[in-house]
Amino acid sequence: MLIAGIQDNMVEALETRDLRRAAKSVEASLKVIQEEDLTKAAAEVHESLARIYWAMGDRNLARHWARKCVDLRCDWDVLEPANRTKLLQELLSTFEVF
């Protein structure tokens, strides 16, 4: 239920384009995910943070979270880990349409 409340807050923040509040909500959900050891769900949360920070114009922080997303997906064999740099660039290239 805690994550659902956090998610509702994030959605409301995104609807009003309050990206800072949305980022704080996503970071709160990441904390819960880490505390509950739900690491498989964390990649999507990292990607959400990356996309929000990208939209806020903070490219460095966006790349940081995107890299964590790619690393988790490679660690869980969702992505082929052979070329993480290429995978990161491919993910970042999708952010322009966000």
Overall pLDDT: 83
- Estimated radius of gyration: 13 Å
Strand element count: 0
Low-confidence stretches: none
The helical percent reads over 70%
Give me the secondary-structure topology.
Layout: H1 2-15, H2 19-35, H3 39-56, H4 59-75, H5 84-93
Helix pairs in contact: 1-2, 2-3, 3-4, 4-5
Question: How would you describe this structure to a colleague?
Answer:
By secondary structure, the protein is mostly helical. It is 78% helix and 0% strand. The radius of gyration is 13 Å and the shape is flat.
Task: Pick out its properties.
mainly alpha; 98 residues; flat; 0% strand
Brief summary:
The chain is mainly α and 98 residues long. It is 78% helix and 0% strand. The chain has five helices and no strands.
